[in-house]
Amino acid sequence: MRYNGLSVVLTLLLSVIKGGEGRVVEPQSPDRTGFQVLRLQASDSDLVDTALRLADEYELNEWAELNRPDGYVDVMVNLEKKERFTRAIEDAGIVSSVMIEDVEERIKRHVTMKKRSANDNYDYDSFNVFEDIEKELKKINNTYSDIARLDIIGETFEKRNMYVLRVSKDIGPAPTKPIILIDAGIHAREWVSISTIMYIINQVVRNPSDDLYIKAFLDSYEFVFMPVLNPDGYAYTQVDRLWRKNRVYNDKSSCRGVDLNRNWDYKWGGLGTSGRPCQIDYRGPAAFSELETKAVQKWVEAYKSKILLYINFHAYGQLWMTPYGYSTDTPSNEVEMLKYSKIAVKAIKKSRGTEYRYGPVYTTIYPASSISVDWVRGAEDVPLAYTVELPDKGDHGFLTPPSEIPLIGKETWEGIRALLITLADDKGLLKTAEIIIV
User: Fold this and answer.
1) Domain definitions of the chain by residue range
2) How many helices (DSSP H) and strands (DSSP E) are in the chain?
3) CATH architecture of 5-31+34-101
4) Is 404 a catalytic site residue?
5) Is CATH 3.40.630.10 correct for 130-427?
6) Which of 134, 389, 411, 414 is catalytic?
7) pTM of the entire structure?
8) What is the DSSP string of 280-318?
9) DSSP code of 122?
10) Cα–Cα distance between 179 and 307 in angstroms, integer?
11) What would the pLDDT profile of 216-258 be if each residue is shown by its tens digit?
């Protein structure tokens, strides 16, 4: 897959311009005025593949999202390419419609990241800059020290810290209970993944006395949250809202960044990855070449025997997916994994009617090798591992409006909560006697 023309120009502008004391000069935000997001609706799997091929041929992969069960591919086009591209897809028998009329207008209208003054409280109903997320995690660590512990597990290329927040009753220096591991923000532009994990952190940390289930969870599990797996990329989305990768410099290339969710050491470098640094799914020069994935690898390998459940948040598409992404191979316990998927998506639908599909990554969305969920399940043998594509289904796509933040957070927590209740019942884990499993 390749970037479109704008992204190639942007990437060249992002090449190293150093002077003085090694300062790097970055460009202004790219202007996507008039860019549209089109939905390519295909009637069968072969036409979905044709849509993806045409998107690749026209270099429209900066925004290319797929929902295979629902038979659609979303792509972003500029006015220069739209006429030729739409003619090509019509000739192929694919119907198109406009999902977002003007990407730049949508970005400016309601998609902003807030930065707060020193005296402001963290706003869980807004998107927040990395520094304010950092402050809130430290505040939780200090205020709820009886149940919360914040650790630094690594440092990024641009010297930002990578954090792990552990939450459990009688928290100690190292995990002792079955671990529920949840991460977010591995793809920088997927802001709602980070707002959702922060919503869940807020529920778990602040509500034990009000919610008997959360109290029971903290008695029985240790929640481990990795809220921002790609801090450099996330910070850079204030310049380029649709940036996806990290911000490392690539050898012998003017294009920056590695797709951190193509950098894991399980079937590394296969389908759904690229060896070209300018492409959006560039896998890096080697498995675990990146500081971010190395930091997570070290933590997971230290405690993998205790990890019971892993959830990796993304956006968008409303999909609750199991391994694997590298091929149609499935884990030995796929039936069990799909059972818990069904429980989660049923609870989400009950919350506010949001409908999710579930199934393996490869057949539910697209081939994607070297992804975290495959490594966690396939290499580290964690029993339950999921990739979750949060809402919506394309009305906003990556550009989730702030009004959706609490709604998506609430329904996602309801899904995880239902999964954990059933899982605990199945495994005999809940220690609080008064809890009744329903």
Assistant:
1) 5-31+34-101, 130-427
2) 13, 14
3) 2-Layer Sandwich (3.30)
4) no
5) yes
6) 389
7) 0.91
8) TTB--SSTT-SHHHHHHHHHHHHHGGGEEEEEEEEESS-
9) P
10) 4
11) 999 999 999 999 999 999 999 999 999 999 999 999 999 999 9
